[in-house]
Amino acid sequence: MRRGALLLLLVCAVALARAAAVVTDGLLPNGNFEEGPPKSELVNGTVVSRGDAIPQWETSGLVEYIESGHKQGDMLLVVPQGAHAVRLGNEASIRQRLSVSPGAYYAITFSAARTCAQAERLNVSVSPEWGVLPMQTIYGSNGWDSYAWAFKAKLPAVTLLIHNPGVEEDPACGPLIDGVAIRALYPPALVRGSGNLLKNGGFEEGPYFLPNASWGVLVPPNIEDDHSPLPAWMIVSSKAVKYVDAAHFAVPQGARAVELVGGRESALVQEVRTVPGWAYRLAFAVGDAADGCAGAMVAEAYAARATVKVPYESRGVGGYKRAVLDFTAIANRTRVVFQSTFYHMKPDGTLCGPLIDDASLVGLRKKPAAGAGGRRRLLKFL
Questions:
Q1: How far is CA 241 from each of CA 42, 108, 256, 362, 373, rounded to the nearest angstrom?
Q2: Is the pTM above the cut of 0.85?
Q3: 54 Cβ neighbours under 8 A, 6+ residues apart
Q4: Which of 103, 140, 204, 263 has the fewest CB atoms found within 10 Å of its own CB?
Q5: Could you give all domains of the chain from N- to C-terminal order, each with its CATH number?
């Protein structure tokens, strides 16, 4: 009996290992699709004929295995990571089983590109959570964008699914998917002794950056993602913000920052505990990401009844300046908001905007000497 029970446990362990890949920060197993199906499993050279033909992935519906440089009519399909990607036709999906820690938070990063459809979107889910990522707005100059989507693990084994709900006349006219990665998120705590009431004020905690992806990662608004890929921060309104890294962009402090690419249609928000009647000081850096986004920028910050507009003349080659907003709290919780006043566009037609980094909020414990009710506006450049 003991030998039989041991054998049964071993069989179950092997089955679970095959069913769910143990995730570590980085690309998922075959996350860049460089391991392809046998040519015998491809119909007409691209269409995957079996649901388990692509190693580590399960597919359903019309899924194509695309090689970089593949031609579709007058369109040349380019793959950003390696030489291969998949294309999801109408109602097609890819899925992978993952082994995770229940209760932990994770961010999925993947790259996607429109092909011939004009109003594409993707459903991303880790059961029982799901989100919808619209792809009408193209932020990357080469047609590809990287997206982040976060979830809280409810079970030790979950299934990541990326699904195209499209209803195009051409059933193969769907988005390309490449470079699927994951990163465990660690909810940031207040740094003791710093006095900073903002969590993750330097934006160092966030989603994974794909190797050689020089266009950053789009973080969608929270209406499309129940859990923010930027811990402690919410993206409010209808457009995404761009998460950038020091390896490919100019970052004022540390290794990561946020570029406000949605104008007034997106806002970066964090809610902080405050004491009504106390004075507080919000300090932050405003700059440009050295991504060719040039022109007269204005970043806005709001807290309680106070607001400040920070002008920044960008040459598109990097640089920043610091700003301070003093305010008096009027409630037990105060929303700190960052927003771009204007829309900006690079010469290649892609959206861009001012950079926000190194944000801190400290209590002064007494009301400002001038003004009343927190209405005084103060801007200092340090």
A1: 38, 16, 13, 25, 32
A2: yes
A3: 30, 33, 35, 36, 37, 48, 63, 65, 86, 94
A4: 103
A5: 21-185 (2.60.120.260), 232-381 (2.60.120.260)
